[in-house]
Amino acid sequence: MNSALLKTPSKQGKSISLFSATALGIGGMMGAGLFSLLGTASMHAGTHIPLAFFLGALAASFSVYSYAKLGATFPSSGGAATFTVMSFGPGVISGGLNIFQYIAYLIAAALYAAGFSEYANTLLGGGLSPFEVKVVGAGIVILCAGINLLGTAIVGRAEMLAIGFVTIALLLFAVEGIHIADISKFEMSGGSINGIAIATGILYINYQGFGVVTNSSGAMKAPQKELPQAMFTALILVTIAYVLVSTATIFLLPPAQILSFNGHVLADAARLVAGKTGFVVIGASALLACAAALNATMFAASNIAADMLHKNTISKTLGSTVLKTKVYSLVGSSCSVIILVLLFPLAVVGQMASLAFLLVYAAVTFGHLRVRNQTGANPWLLWGAITVNLGLFAALFISVVKTAPGSAISLGCALVGSFLLEASYRKRKSRNTQVNQP
Predict the structure, then answer these.
(1) What confidence score (pLDDT) does residue 153 get?
(2) CA pair distance 111, 30, nearest whole angstrom
(3) In this structure, what DSSP letter does residue 152 have?
(4) Closest Cα to residue 83, out of 207, 211, 230, 205?
């Protein structure tokens, strides 16, 4: 996600252009997950990674349609937090979903922190111990927290520059990599239908940033027209970049090497393209992408939620605890992300993040069915989004249960706990209200 969300203009302020909204979507999707999860995805898809990226984009397009219709009908800086309340009404369901969304963003932030530490270790020669790698991940979380306390305006501009650098570096790598690769020796290998489905679920996190565009809908002059254009344009452009980069990677590296370079595949592939310079440029791009995504995802989520709290459209539980003040929010979010970084390896936290967002998108779209008469959405496309998201969730969840049952249990506890926490708070509040009534 891009921290421009933190300063999205209101309707009374400067309006956002179609170009800016599209750039926001590209910035929200481009980079961090791509650098971190190629190796993990190749374990299941083999050399069919570009196909998995394409299928992930196709799956995401259904949710993009749903979010675009919702954002155009209910323009707000709160995005999906607003959609749940408008669809389900203020209550346990919308409150629980918003708590779980908050957790999903923290899991995604942990992925980006873990990705940063993996590439930092690679650039340093790979001499860090596993514990030291995790310490680096925790350190970048603390650094981002300190930067955000200083203000978001400068950080937002810096992130836009970073994403621009990352995008150019990736495209140059893809074009040159495909050019120099000996395609005649390339052979497709691995990747059963189920394996490609699992890889698609793993890589889905690379598209979760499309939702950031809906947070700018309140500042658009014509959101009904501009929001869908911006979201689908961003999705198409990012998908082209992902397919090109992953194609170059499988042309340059055999599956065994992609697996052995898990966590830092692109830097090692870039070494074949431009030697040490390519290695350093792509490695630096990975650090920038992961840091930018970590910075924006962890703190934009809590700031948006806090904004929604003031409008009484988000969980009171969050508002009375971790979102009470900006400092509380930063400290609570940072500590949670650090715990995730320390407890779970990169591959596991990446799969947890994808699982969480697949559930969130399915739930938000299911709520959309309740208000589709207001949005004018095609019900078949909404059911398509729900089916695709839940289908990918099921394929990935079964895989995670087999390979990392602890993470599956943790995610399940987070989901159930979100609703129990919201229900408990509302029940306690209702009891106190009755006691205080004369």
Answers:
(1) 54
(2) 14
(3) S
(4) 211
Residues 6 or more apart in contact with residue 101 via CB below 8 angstroms: 80, 81, 84, 301, 360
Contact in structure between 307 and 314 (CB atoms under 8 Å): no
In this predicted structure, the answer to whether residue 115 has a pLDDT above a threshold of 50 is: yes
Please, which residues have CB within 8 angstroms of residue 125's CB and are 6 or more apart in sequence?
A: none
CA–CA distance, 198 with 59 (Å, rounded to integer) = 13
- Write the CB contacts of 187 (distance below 8 Å, at least 6 apart in sequence): 47
CA angle 377, 379, 381 (to 5 degrees): 85
The answer to whether the pTM exceeds 0.70 is yes
Contact 96, 419 (CB under 8 A): yes
Retrieve residue 213's tokens: 């565009």
Determine the pLDDT at residue 162. 77
> Contact 81/308 with Cβ under 8 angstroms?
yes
Which residue's entry shows tokens 């390896």?
A: 345
pLDDT of residue 55: 94
Q: What mean pLDDT do residues 42-52 have? A: 92
Coil, strand or helix: which one is 153?
Answer: helix
Question: Is residue 16 a contact partner of residue 220, using CB atoms and an 8 Å limit?
Answer: yes
As given in the structure block, the two tokens for residue 51 are: 């196909």
Where residue 397 falls among pLDDT bands split at 50, 70, 90? Answer: very high
Domains of the chain, residue spans: 3-433
CA distance 65 to 232: 8
Rounded CA-CA distance 183/160 in Å is 35
- Angstrom distance (rounded) from CA 223 to CA 217: 6
Q: Which CATH superfamily is domain 3-433 in?
A: Amino acid/polyamine transporter I (1.20.1740.10)
Look at 51-65, 172-186, 251-265 and tell me which has the smallest mean pLDDT. Answer: 251-265
Residue 95: Cβ-neighbour burial (10 angstroms; 0-12, 13-18, 19+): buried
Among candidate residues 204, 211, 210, the one with its CA nearest the CA of residue 358? 204
Length of the chain: 438
The average pLDDT across 311-316 equals 50
- Percentage helix, strand, coil, to 5, in the chain? 85, 0, 15
